[in-house]
Amino acid sequence: MSVRLRLDKPWKPLTAEEATRLPGQLGVYQIADAAGTVLFIGEAGARSPFGLRSELQRQFAERGAGCQFRVEVNQQYRSRWFELLMVHKHDHGALPPDNAKNPPPVLGRLSPA
Amino acid sequence: MDFEPSEEQQMLIDQVRRFVREEIIPLEATMDPDASELEPADHKRLVEKTKAMGLFGIDIPKEYGGPDIDIVTRVLLAIEMAQHRAGLYVPCYGTFGGAGLAQIFEANEDQKERYLYPTLRGEKKAFFGLTEPSGGSDPARAIQTRAERKDNGWVLNGAKIFISNADRAQYGIVFARTDAAKGRAGITCFIVDNDTPGFHVRRVVHTLRSSHYATELEFKDCWVSDHQVLGEVNKGFAVANDRLTRQRIPYAAGCIGVAIAAHEMAIEWCKMRSTFGEKLANRQAVQWMLVDNEIDIRTARHFTLEAAEKARRGLPFKIEASIAKLTASEGGGRVVDRSMQIHGGMGMTKDLPLERWYREMRIRRVGEGPSEVQRMVIAREILGSNLR
To answer: Given CB atoms, is A111 within the 8 Å cutoff of chain B?
Structure first.
């Protein structure tokens, strides 16, 4: 059984066109700056009108050009989001800067092998 | 046995019902459908309300400052507390407080000071470390985590899986094999602090429950002192057996609560919805589904209250607790399934709570002893204890 803790797909430029091409499904995503430093880990939950597409379109509208993104379609978007946050915290000692501004109320600790 | 609630019980039921309908359900209208936590400000506000109701710390025994709710009343309230979207696993989002793990009440005075009382004050949380990759239904044989004597203590090595809250807890209760030759009589219960060197929460285990995940643990040369042994060495399974069997009863009640909520939604829906010029309520196929729902709910309610009543009277209730768990988890699953069928396409969406109940109810047939183990327990009681 292979377990992938980290989201390690290639980055794509965050543009209006790329966001529009995304599926309207539930899942998780990461936003990074041009150098690949993760700025934010988000989830596209069932309240998003068009799932990942809506979330990334919103991110582009707020951040403008110059960022990158990657997504993972995932029905377990909630637990996967918590997992990505915990793994990031373990790897980098802190949450991504934009998550740190409004952290989830309770976040656990993971120490991946 | 008469299971009609007394006047006092009915008052409490009404109070909790109002709380769920007026405080919890409106908040869920804007939360993620899979969420399991309230915003901290909402949680704090609602805890103040349950304290004012005199029901905070509902599972804490009276001698430890709890509100002195007997188990029958507890079941009746658990049925009410589960009747919202997240209600099966996080009834009222924990605003009625928790009591901690059953085993920790059996701790010695020093351990109570360090773990039980902080837990009851809400300062510490615990996890329950029993199940291993080698199995969970038959822990006596499945446990491979070893604890070996070293320097006035024990060194733990092994792994646990499907452990809830281990990443957020401050300590856990961990079962390990201390005598390989003795089978069930070779298991000891340890209290392990989460910051103990050698203790690792390795990963999240994703399940049907998106919001409330499990974790996988590793113990790698994890040394704990003799002071961390809970109960006696090699008698880990003797700790809190009665309390654990008792917990099975409100666990069943949660399934009934969700089943009632799903059934009520189905009734409302089929009175409104028409197909081919006829209300669903007028169609025999739908009526029979509703009748089967009613029977499943009443059956589970009867057996669960019977188990609770026997426990309250101090009579043996092991077999009744198993029947309650079995009928409520299996019957509850059928009720949610039929209610989804009655709702058609809408029943499959995250717009309604049915799909979440469907996923979470499925786990109930496995968690807290799978249906097959409950049947084994009942069979042993019927056929005699020499059955293997």
So the answer is: yes
